[in-house]
Each structure stands twice: as structure tokens, then as C-alpha cells.
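Help needed: design a sequence for this.
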């Protein structure tokens, strides 16, 4: 044909195939480099020892912990103890000795957290956690969290505590904070903060903060730019930038208060929802967008108005946040009208995600320091029996008993209420295990003129119910980690037996014992 060179067609096809093959090789190299970077960053906080023991169950965790702690206790010199502490810290991926010291309880908690995060890192690297697959958290982590809460509830129901002075006996389940109590407390505090904001003339801003693309393991929209960052890394990124926002608002002397919740996307990357009350909404919005405007849709800010008494069809800030508060509970409340369209399975997965990475569910800011703890201690004193209540404390305790957080904060500021802390009579080991590094614990509330001790009773277990039920039922009531099931992640070391081996007389594989009901255990 005129205008085209005399070039063999087969040579053109061969050159095109060579170009495509070279491009495939380049893509494979780039994918391998990217996967290497993702793996390195995703497993950065997990030690090599944890990866070798990532399929450990709860019995293995307790056995290893007992051996390590006994070796640490037998150290005869400070130098020998420091060397053994360094060995434990290296194996558990910790950078320094905790404030409470290395205790048996701390070793167990750290080891469990490392194993859970290692399992989740595996699912993230294989893109198993995303929409239409395993949403929010992996099935393995969700099942372990459900088992932990179920066995914890069984143990609390079967454990009695006795007051040493009066002989009063109750179960741990009677005094535990249920999801309904947590929800009621959060709603009361947020409603009080809304009333405080209305009194000060603050504007309400509802803010949603998201992460840059490199923190999303499996984005639903757009290209995959994940660099291997874990959900914990993303949470820290938002937390640090929000701290800069608060510092900038304080530097400009802008009054504000807020409540925030943290929850995951379906690919496990976190995002925050914040209700902010501020006296300078325009400048506050400018500061927030300055620190979080990494993309066009990264930050969503909506201005809300307060609800008047005659506006029955308008939602308040408390009801607006209800959907996000329910997701912070470890289990869904037993109220179908309250749950509405919320999924109980989704609530359990979000709770498992939060427990795995140690992410705080709710945070209050801009209120007096220690106000939430003083609120709880005041409610305890308001319903307590046999407590010496001074006349000056009656307005404070009345506001706490009636659920009036606004009135409680005003009374707290007027009377200059602070927390009553005392050195307890526990042993050093018990004090360290209770996570009170300074040897002090909250005992009540006080002012310059009076003090109320809300922890005057000394409760002790009626008997060693933990060991009793472990021996009776042959189960661990505190089991939180099970072996990985076959076909998911790390395989079980037990060889699989097929039909042929069973027909030849081989014993069938062992199955787990049936769960023990509360009725049979009690």
C-alpha cells in the first residue's frame, strides 16, 4: 500500500509481543516492590517472635507468660533483671518498660494484642477486609471477641463478692457496666454539653475527618494507594492533627468543647465524627480545613442549629449522635426501637476492630478536667448507703443523680471539686496489675472544705470461682484467643484426616467440647 513502508507483518507482531512482555515484567517488579513496602510497614510494630507464634491459643499464651514471669522473678541482680526485661520487651515488640512495670498481666495483654494485630495484618495484606467480604474486621477476630465477652459474662455471673464489714453478697454481673448503662451515661453527658453550648452561645459543627488514600487498604472508590499503614497508624495520624487543631484554637483564644467517636470504614481504616461547639465557627472551620484538607472530600463540616422546645420534628445534637454512639458499645442494646436500622453484626465487628487496635471509642473535650470521673463518683455517692454527706455537697450530688450534667459542671466549678486519691493498701504486684503506676486510686471527690469517700467498702471474692469452674467444666472462662481454623490464615499443625484414613480404622479428629451454658455452670 502506498504511504506505508515495506515491513513484514510477523515482525511487527513479534516486536509488539516483546514490548508487552517487558511491560509485564516491569509491572511484576513494581508490584513486588510495592508489596514488600506494604508488608514492611504493616508489620512494623509486630516482632519476629510474634510471627513465629501467631497461631498460639490462650493456653499457650498463659504457659509462655508463666515461664517468662517466673524467670524474671528469679533474677538475683538488677543487671540480670534488666537483661531479662529487655528480652521480654524485644519479643513483644515494646520499646520501653511500662509505668506499672513488667507484670504477668501486662505480658498476657501485650502478647494477645500482638497476636491479634498479626492476624489482622495478614488479612489486610491479602485484601480480605473490605466491602462484600469481611467488613470492618476479620471473622477470626470477631469470633474471638465474641467468645471473650461471652465467657467474661459467664465468669461474672458465677463469681460472688462479699463486703468484709457487713457480709453483703452480690455477683460481679450485678455491679458491671452494661451497654445500656454506658449508652445512658453518654447521652446524659452529651445532652449536658449541648445545653452548655446553648448557654454560652456556641455554634454547633458536625465534622467528619477521613484519612489520605495511603491509609486505605482496600478503597471502594479510586485507585489503590495503600502503603501498608495499619488502622492504628491512621488513628494516630488523625489524633495528632486534631491536637494541632485544638492548640491553634487555644492560641487564638477560641472557646470550644467537643465529643468525638472513632469508627472504621469497611476496609478497616478509621475515621472520626466530631460534634464541636465553638464561639467562632468561621475561624474554627478554617483551622480544621487547614490541617485536614488533603483532598477535596477529606473533610465534611456541617453547621447545625439548636432545637427549640416547640420544634418536635427536629433532632437535637444528642439524637443526631445516637447512631455513632451505639456503634461504640461492645454489644447492641436489647431494644429494637432504639437499634432501628443498625446492624448488631456490624456493631460486634466494630467493637472487635476497636479492641484489637486499642482505639478509644468516645472522647470528651473542653469540659473541666476529671469531670466525667467526678460525675461517676458523685452518682455513686448519691445512691450510696451509710455515707456521710455534707450539706454543701447536696446540690452537686442532686444534679448528678438527676442526670443534669450541665448543673453538675456548674456546681463542680463553683465548689472547686477535685478527685479524692489515696494510696491503697494493696501489694505492689496488685497495684501494678491494677494499672495505677503512682500507687494511687480514685476513692471519691473532695473540696477544700469536705470530702466523700465512695469506696469505703472492701469487697473480696467469696471463693476462687475461676479455678473452681475451670476444673469443673474443663474450660477456661477467660479464653480470648483460639487456634486459627483450617482454611483461614495460619493452618492448624494437626494433619487432616480424609475418608480413607477413617475407613481404615484411624480415629476421627478431635472436636471441641460443646459450650457450657450459664444454667449448667451455675
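Sure. Designed sequence:
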Amino acid at each position: 500500500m502506498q504511504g506505508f513502508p515495506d515491513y513484514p507483518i510477523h515482525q511487527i507482531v513479534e516486536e509488539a509481543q516483546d514490548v508487552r512482555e517487558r511491560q509485564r515484567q516491569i509491572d511484576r517488579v513494581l508490584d513486588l516492590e510495592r508489596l514488600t513496602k506494604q508488608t514492611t510497614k504493616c508489620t512494623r510494630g509486630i516482632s519476629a517472635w510474634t510471627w513465629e507464634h501467631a497461631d498460639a491459643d490462650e493456653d499457650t499464651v498463659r504457659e509462655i507468660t508463666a515461664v517468662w514471669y517466673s524467670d524474671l522473678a528469679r533474677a538475683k541482680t538488677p543487671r540480670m533483671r534488666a537483661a531479662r526485661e529487655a528480652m521480654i520487651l524485644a519479643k513483644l515488640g515494646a520499646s520501653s518498660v511500662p509505668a506499672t512495670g513488667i507484670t504477668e498481666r501486662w505480658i498476657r495483654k501485650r502478647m494477645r494484642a500482638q497476636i491479634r494485630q498479626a492476624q489482622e495484618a495478614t488479612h489486610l495484606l491479602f485484601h480480605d477486609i473490605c466491602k462484600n467480604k469481611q467488613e470492618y474486621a476479620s471473622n477470626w477476630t470477631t469470633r474471638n471477641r465474641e467468645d471473650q465477652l461471652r465467657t467474661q459474662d459467664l465468669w461474672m455471673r458465677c463469681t460472688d463478692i462479699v463486703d468484709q464489714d457487713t457480709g453483703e453478697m452480690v455477683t460481679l454481673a450485678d455491679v458491671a457496666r452494661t451497654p445500656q448503662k454506658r449508652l445512658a451515661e453518654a447521652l446524659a453527658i452529651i445532652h449536658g454539653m449541648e445545653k452548655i453550648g446553648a448557654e454560652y452561645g456556641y455554634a454547633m459543627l458536625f465534622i467528619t475527618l477521613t484519612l489520605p488514600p495511603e491509609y486505605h487498604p482496600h478503597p471502594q472508590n479510586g485507585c489503590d494507594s495503600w502503603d501498608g499503614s495499619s488502622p492504628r497508624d491512621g488513628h494516630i495520624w488523625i489524633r495528632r492533627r486534631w491536637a494541632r487543631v485544638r492548640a491553634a484554637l487555644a492560641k487564638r483564644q477560641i472557646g470550644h468543647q467537643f465529643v468525638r467517636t472513632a469508627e472504621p470504614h469497611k476496609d478497616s481504616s478509621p475515621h472520626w465524627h466530631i460534634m464541636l461547639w465553638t464561639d467562632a465557627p468561621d475561624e474554627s472551620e478554617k483551622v480544621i480545613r487547614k490541617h485536614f484538607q488533603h483532598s477535596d472530600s477529606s473533610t465534611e463540616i456541617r453547621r447545625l442549629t439548636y432545637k427549640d422546645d416547640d420544634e418536635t420534628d427536629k433532632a437535637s445534637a444528642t439524637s443526631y449522635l445516637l447512631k455513632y454512639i451505639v456503634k461504640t458499645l461492645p454489644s447492641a442494646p436489647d431494644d429494637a426501637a432504639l437499634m432501628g436500622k443498625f446492624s448488631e453484626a456490624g456493631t460486634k465487628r466494630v467493637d472487635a476492630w476497636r479492641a484489637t487496635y486499642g482505639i478509644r471509642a468516645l472522647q470528651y473535650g473542653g469540659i473541666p478536667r476529671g469531670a466525667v470521673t467526678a460525675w461517676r463518683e458523685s452518682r455513686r455517692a448519691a445512691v450510696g448507703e451509710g455515707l456521710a454527706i455534707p450539706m454543701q455537697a447536696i446540690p452537686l450530688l442532686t444534679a448528678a443523680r438527676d442526670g443534669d450534667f450541665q448543673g453538675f459542671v456548674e456546681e463542680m466549678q463553683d465548689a472547686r471539686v477535685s478527685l479524692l486519691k489515696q494510696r491503697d493498701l494493696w501489694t505492689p504486684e496488685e497495684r501494678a496489675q491494677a494499672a495505677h503506676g503512682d500507687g494511687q486510686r480514685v476513692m471519691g471527690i473532695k473540696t477544700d472544705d469536705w470530702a466523700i469517700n465512695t469506696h469505703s467498702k472492701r469487697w473480696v471474692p467469696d471463693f476462687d470461682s475461676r479455678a473452681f469452674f475451670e476444673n469443673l467444666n474443663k474450660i477456661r472462662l477467660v479464653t480470648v484467643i483460639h487456634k486459627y481454623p483450617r482454611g483461614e490464615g495460619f493452618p492448624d499443625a494437626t494433619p487432616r484426616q480424609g475418608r480413607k484414613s477413617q475407613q481404615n480404622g484411624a480415629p476421627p479428629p478431635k472436636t471441641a467440647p460443646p459450650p457450657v451454658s450459664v444454667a449448667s455452670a451455675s
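The chain has a mean pLDDT of 78.
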